[in-house]
Amino acid sequence: MRFAKGHGTENDFVILPDPDGRLDLAPSAVAALCDRRAGIGADGVLRVVRTAALGGEPAGAAASAAGCEWFMDYRNADGSVAEMCGNGVRVFARYLVEQGLAKAPAFSVGTRAGARGIVVEDDGDITVDMGAARVLGEGAARLAGGDVRGLRISVGNPHLACRVDGGSAAVAAMDLTAAPELDPAEFPEGANVEVFAEVAPGTLQMRVYERGSAETRSCGTGIVAAAAAATPPGEGATWLVRVPGGECTVFLDSQGARLRGPAVIVAEGETRLP
């Protein structure tokens, strides 16, 4: 099986080219690919498949995805299906451009959260139209080091974005070694949990525990969720968000959210894993 490996701010992915939709990705196969000792190692898998090969209406996807030539079938490291991945869609777009499957500077990619507009910037960064970041109300989680409260936010997938006091040191001190305990009534499908602090005007520091993947070096939808949680209701803003793997910029306005950051393909090859 052919594969490529890429990352966006060190949120890394195994990319599987499957234009005709022939791969049957069992959760065990995804987990084997993402295993960092016995596999290739990644936070998730991006299957590159033509939307037409999925019947034109990908199961579980928003209707707008049907109009895109390529569909990003994203799986978490444990094999579970995810609706959207902000870093993953940038890496997916980079792969399409480098393989000659899409033409820069602008095109769209289908995801389970719907079509996502892509712009390849002159400096090589990739900007993704992330759609609306919807604030759904307050929520809480129990971490290994104690309870946190924040805002429940949908970026096509569910988040709990929690502001903490104490700046970068407080963010660094948060214990994300174990999966957060969430109220199933608030998060029936689980959620990514972000902890963040404003460390300078217009700048956030963030860490994240990703549903199905544990703590990761970055999370694109989580970056957008933290920016939305830091922005007063009804206002627009531009945030630089720093994560352990680098930094991205979020633009919030009445049209929704746009996420800009790097995306790199680091390797290609073949694997014998199932």
Automatic annotation (TrEMBL):
Keyword Cytoplasm part of the UniProt annotation: yes
Superkingdom assignment: Bacteria
Record key words, sorted: Amino-acid biosynthesis, Cytoplasm, Isomerase, Lysine biosynthesis
Could be important to modulate the pK values of the two catalytic cysteine residues (site feature) positions: H159, E210
Residues noted as binding substrate in the record, renumbered to the chain: N11, N76, G86, N87, N157, N192, E210, R211, G220, T221
EC class (word): isomerase
Catalysed reactions, semicolon-separated: (2S,6S)-2,6-diaminopimelate = meso-2,6-diaminopimelate
EC number: 5.1.1.7
Subcellular location: Cytoplasm
Protein's pathway: Amino-acid biosynthesis; L-lysine biosynthesis via DAP pathway; DL-2,6-diaminopimelate from LL-2,6-diaminopimelate: step 1/1
Chief location: cytoplasm
PROSITE patterns recorded: DAP_EPIMERASE (PS01326)
Active site: C85, C219
Family: Belongs to the diaminopimelate epimerase family.
Known function: Catalyzes the stereoinversion of LL-2,6-diaminopimelate (L,L-DAP) to meso-diaminopimelate (meso-DAP), a precursor of L-lysine and an essential component of the bacterial peptidoglycan.
Subunit details: Homodimer.
PANTHER family reported for this sequence: DIAMINOPIMELATE EPIMERASE, DIAMINOPIMELATE EPIMERASE, CHLOROPLASTIC
Record's protein name: Diaminopimelate epimerase
